[in-house]
Amino acid sequence: MFTSQGPSLRELAVQALSSVERGYDLLAPKFDHTPFRTPAPVLEAVERALCATGPFDHGLDLCCGTGAGMDVLRAVCRESVTGVDISAGMLAVGRERAPGEPRLAGPRVGWVRGDARALPFGPVFDLVVSFGAFGHFLPRELPGLFAQVHSVLRPGGRFAFPLPAPAPPSSPWYWALLGFDAAMRVRNAVWRPPFVMYYRAFRLGDVRRELVRAGFDVDLYPLSEFGRRPDGSPRCRMLVATRRADAPASG
């Protein structure tokens, strides 16, 4: 499951018994060698889809980690690209992976330590993206999270992220993810600090409802590169939530 440069089982165990912030600080140096990093085909598919709807001026990668989504933003944003994450360790690896250079071409790049539930920005972004981070938020936190995203977007700005279809009960992945979530609930019931990471808690119906309540119009775009399920539905979509021009800033 992991490369020789990835974390050992012992290192993963230490991470899992830490808080989310501390756990990712510990994992950061080896994170890009784990399956937790968003796969390149997903990043590339989202980049192609956004290129068809852009360009954008100012972009934000929410919960940017080591910066996988920053590469997507660099391709579709003209003026500036900002990554925000709660883990100083992940940000440090991201900066090292893409060191600052004099701006000869492409957008300005910045890295900011901050909590997605209390973003340190005004309404200055045209595009917010996020990859693989939503499992770190409990369902009850979604209204506040989406209100924060709404508050940093300009009217007409977009919030985009990939949303894979859930595995059917006939798939081994369904039971693997169900088992993982159950193990995390037991861990958080008996151990402090909690480590919030649930793979099955981010459901399309709930997400769409809370985005609309936060002041967004919601559209779904199939990512055709991943094909369709037997029932004809896409295996993966890009969700695009557009801040309504007449909606007041949230916060």
Number of domains: 2
Number of helices: 8
Gross CATH architecture of the largest domain: 3-Layer(aba) Sandwich
CATH class of the largest domain: Alpha Beta
Mean pLDDT, to the nearest integer, reads 88
The low-confidence runs, each spanning 5 or more residues with pLDDT under 50, are none
Order of secondary-structure elements:
HHHEHEHEEHEHHEE
Helix percent band: 25-40%
Percentage beta strand: 15-25%
Number of strands: 7
CATH level-four homologous superfamily name of the largest domain = Vaccinia Virus protein VP39
As laid out across the biggest beta sheet, the strand order is: 3-2-1-4-5-7-6
Instruction: Tell me about the largest β-sheet.
Output: 7 strands, mixed
Structural class: alpha/beta
End-to-end CA span: 40 Å
Rg from Cα: 18 Å
CATH topology of the largest domain: Rossmann fold
- From the spread of the alpha carbons, the general shape counts as globular
Describe the structure.
- 33% of the residues are buried.
- This protein has 8 helices and 7 strands.
- Strand 1, helix 4 and strand 2 form a beta-alpha-beta unit.
- Helix 3 (40-51) runs parallel beside helix 4 and helix 6 packs across helix 8.
- The protein has helices at residues 9-16, 20-27, 40-51, 68-76, 88-97, 142-152, 172-190, 204-213; strands at residues 56-62, 77-85, 108-113, 125-129, 153-164, 216-222, 236-243.
- It has 251 residues and is an alpha/beta fold.
- It has 2 domains: 1-36, no CATH class; 38-166 and 203-243, Rossmann fold (3-Layer(aba) Sandwich).
- The radius of gyration is 18 Å and the shape is globular.
- The chain has a 7-stranded mixed beta sheet, sandwiched between helices.
